[in-house]
Amino acid sequence: MSYKRSTLMQERMEQNRKIILQSARDLIAQGGFKDAQIQAIAERAGVSSGLVYRYFENKSQVLIEVLSDAITHEIGILFSIAKSELDPVQKLDKAVTTFVKRAMNRPQLAYSLMFEPVDPELEHERFRSKERIKQSITQILDEGKQQGVFHFRDLNTAAQCVVATMTYVVVEPLNPSQEVDFDEEYRDNFVQQISEFCVKAIQVV
């Protein structure tokens, strides 16, 4: 009986944690990190601020976990592409287009997670996230070089350049202050140009 009670308590705690994180993510997607205050997170989750503090020491810890969870999901997609049966050129094209399209589908969330000014602790988590993205791109580029379809001097530098392109290039269209209204045609052309740039920069011709 004690074991069952303990299991139910653990499940309830996990559920509370998930609700808090989802509420924080929803607020970020609507108005950025500035809107994801502890009180607002608690109200959206239907819990007290005190309960939020039972799971997280402060707002930064909540936001770091939201960022980590979001990036982990994106990295899973990128590694799935890297391990697919596509050839290296197709893999790089798909990795870049998929990442950028997904960012543009949730502009406010993507902008906040990648660019919105944050405290040093959260900025450090951003750096770690980009390193993890780079690992998936490195795998694709290494395979391409071994097959003779990619050429570059240094694998790490080439991967950094690709990641920098596929992330920072979207800062302008995603920036809420720019009020860019991109329709499907604009988005598709924008994404295609980014992908072509990345592939042609290292492709053997």
From TrEMBL:
TM region(s), chain numbering: none
The keyword Electron transport appears for this protein: no
Protein's recorded name: HTH tetR-type domain-containing protein
Keyword Ligase: no
Source species: Acinetobacter gerneri DSM 14967 = CIP 107464 = MTCC 9824
Listed SUPFAM superfamilies: Homeodomain-like, Tetracyclin repressor-like, C-terminal domain
DNA-binding region: 37-56
Ranges where the HTH tetR-type domain occurs: 14-74
Molecular function terms from GO: DNA-binding transcription factor activity; transcription cis-regulatory region binding
Sorted UniProt keywords: DNA-binding
